[in-house]
Every structure is written in structure tokens, then in C-alpha cells.
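Predict the 3D structure for this chain.
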Amino acid sequence: GLPPMQITLIHEYFHTIQLGYRCSNGDYFWEITSTWIEDVVFPDNDDYLNFMHSPSDFNYYKNPEIDLDETNGYSAAWFGHFLSTHYDDIGGITHVEELESVIMRKIWERMAVSGSSALNIVDYILENEYNSSFIEAWVEFNSRNLFSQIDESFYYYQDQVEIEPIITSETIEIEDSVFSV
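Done. Predicted structure below.
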């Protein structure tokens, strides 16, 4: 039908925009942002939520202990929503307010001039433009997801009501060669 074609078109079109930035780092981040833009442009079509229910080993919501860069990107699209609703002081958690956000553009512009990983670039933008860091963002993002459908004050995006909370063991250690929590 038309809705799946629309979201596929915007997803793939956004990949062409990404190619315009001439960067090859962070393949998972390409998918995070292309899946994120699907929902910003077509907010009534929540097809992207299916990736959060998928049993794939690369599904972040089913395997929250994996590193962000080991996900398929699709299942972590909410990280795009978190960044764009949380850091640009847009005053809301809907796609309408999110259209005013510029953080994704800043990240992609930095990716175009830097050979760094997507995580390092997100960290750089958060530190230099938002007085934060990737670690702070990632911890808050995950904390807010742990409380989906439990406490609405933790919502950073309107579709959080549609997805179950992340189920974890009591302790998860997140390690990376650059970041560790």
C-alpha cells in the first residue's frame, strides 16, 4: 500500500542526503537516522516500531547489553528522537516540535568533515554545543526507556506509549574502547 511505500521512499531518500555528506563512518547511525526521519515525516505510520519487537540479535530493545554500534540501527531509531527532542529545547515530545530540532543536521555536518566514528561525533556535538556528552545522553536515554509504560514523565517522544519497557537483568555493564559505563 501507499504508507509502506512512503516510509520506504523517505528512508531511502534520507540515505541519499547522507551520501551527500560524503562520509563512510557509522553505518548503524545511517539506519538510526533514516528510520528516525521516517517517523518525523510520517508520524501516523509507526512501522518502525516493528523493529523493536523483532527477535533479531541486533535488536537493541531485545538485547540492550549490545553496543549501539553493534545494533542494526533500525531498532535504535528512538535515540534519534531522544537527541532531537531532548537537546534542542523544542518544548515538546511530538514530531511537530521535533521539526524545529537541528541536532541531527549538526551531527551529519560534523560527520562530513571528520573521520571519527559516529559515537565520537555525537559526543563531540553534545560536548561542544549542548554541554553534555554521549555517555550522559546514552544513560538518560536508556533510563527513560526502562520506564516506558510505567511513568509518562520519562517520555521523550510521543510513541513511547506504544512500546514495552526494556527488560534487563539487575546490572548491565556497557563497555567500549572509548566509552565505558
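The radius of gyration is 15 Å.
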